[in-house]
Amino acid sequence: MRAILRPGRAGSEPTSKAANTKRPTVRPVAILDTADPHARMSGCIIQPALEAELNMNRRAFLSQSSQLLAIAGLAPHMFGENPMPENNQRRSLSFSNNWIDSLLLSTVRDMEVEDAIVVNLSTTALHYRAGGEHEIILPWKSSMLRRCTIENAESAALLHVRQRTNLGAVALAWEWYGHRNEQFPRGTPLYISSQDDIGQIELDPITAFGHTVAGPSSPRRYQLKLNLWYTPEETDCGIHTGHQFLEVHTQILGAGHMQKFRENNAGTLYEDVLMPAGFTHDPFFTVAQDRSFSYPWHRYYADTDCIWMAIELHPAGTPS
Predict the structure, then answer these.
(1) How many whole angstroms separate alpha carbon 300 and alpha carbon 248?
(2) Are residues 173 and 270 in the same domain?
(3) What distance in Å separates the CA atoms of residue 319 and residue 308, rounded to the nearest whole number?
(4) Domain for residue 7, yes or no?
(5) What's the half-sphere exposure (Cβ side, CA atoms, 13 Å) at 129?
(6) What is the pLDDT along the chain (320 residues), one digit of tens a residue?
(7) Range of the domain at 179
(8) Does 310 lie in the same domain as 201?
(9) Strand order in the sheet with 100-120
(10) What is the C-alpha separation between 221 and 201, in angstroms, rounded?
């Protein structure tokens, strides 16, 4: 089984306060905490092992890193509130389990990825390299990366399918969606994971999601939240509309469809977007000049057993 992050050098890390000290080798650390001790062992997804002589203290290291990034023109607003952020901050997402490994990364610099779906959760491009090739993942998009290095990114989610055996058991720990929505069809097997509240982000929804606009930018604050969905093959997850938040979806496992309809009727289908693993669809919402938004009738339809991730941006106000 592959790991999300490549064993060995795990990327730039802040140095200790003592200068000219030898950093000890860091043993593999299991990010996931499950009841099964075998699952804990196989769930080890970060295995840094770095041993080098570091000849500058922490303040000097971060200061020089900030200067170099500024010269390179990389996201200058990144240092607005914290002039010296620590690189490669990471934590496990709340819905990690025996079937799905997941990590949230921030302020990423030179982090090696062994095998993962990488989702860019920021308003700037994620830059990565594979050998001598340099590539990008656009904001709010994703790709499947193997043996690559993320050169720089503001924020990203990494997801990896650990196993497929007894996949339907994820539903035992998740919630059937009908418990949340009394109008949801009683016979539809759609299950939702816990939701991870990532934090606030500031963006203009028109420019952030590729809509053309004339005039000045008008940023808004949004609360970014992530969760997973699961449904078995040939499931109609229900035509709906009226979301009070912006959302897109990333396919994690299986193959499905995001579909648009003229009316609340399957016979009025007018756009069918295929969802292969690793793909994030374009937004279904439209944004008006006053930054209000609306959705057409739409649904998710599963061809196979499917797991996908919802990326939700909940309005949190206008910056002062």
Answers:
(1) 11
(2) yes
(3) 31
(4) no
(5) 9
(6) 456 776 554 444 443 444 444 444 433 333 333 334 344 334 334 333 343 334 445 445 444 554 544 444 443 333 334 455 689 999 999 999 999 999 999 999 999 999 999 999 999 999 999 999 999 999 999 999 999 999 999 999 999 999 999 999 999 999 999 999 999 999 999 999 999 999 999 999 998 986 665 567 889 999 999 999 999 999 999 999 999 999 999 999 999 999 999 999 999 999 999 999 999 999 999 999 899 999 999 999 999 999 999 999 999 976 75
(7) 168-317
(8) yes
(9) 89-92, 100-120, 142-161, 126-130, 133-137
(10) 6
DSSP state of 72: H
- Indicate yes or no: pTM above 0.85: no
Domain limit, last residue, from 135, 161, 187: 161
Nearest alpha-carbon partner for 234 in 169, 167, 305, 186: 305
**Gap between the Cα atoms of 134 and 42, Å rounded:** 31
Beta-bridge mates of residue 298: 240, 260
The reply to whether 292 and 173 lie within a common domain is yes
Retrieve residue 128's tokens.
Answer: 């990565």
> What letter would DSSP give residue 221?
E
Q: Which two tokens stand for residue 47?
A: 């295995």
- Residue 88 amino acid letter: N
* Helices (H), ranges, the chain: 37-42, 58-72, 170-173, 205-208
Judge contact between 235 and 265, C-beta under 8 A: no
Q: How far apart are CA 318 and CA 52, in angstroms?
A: 46
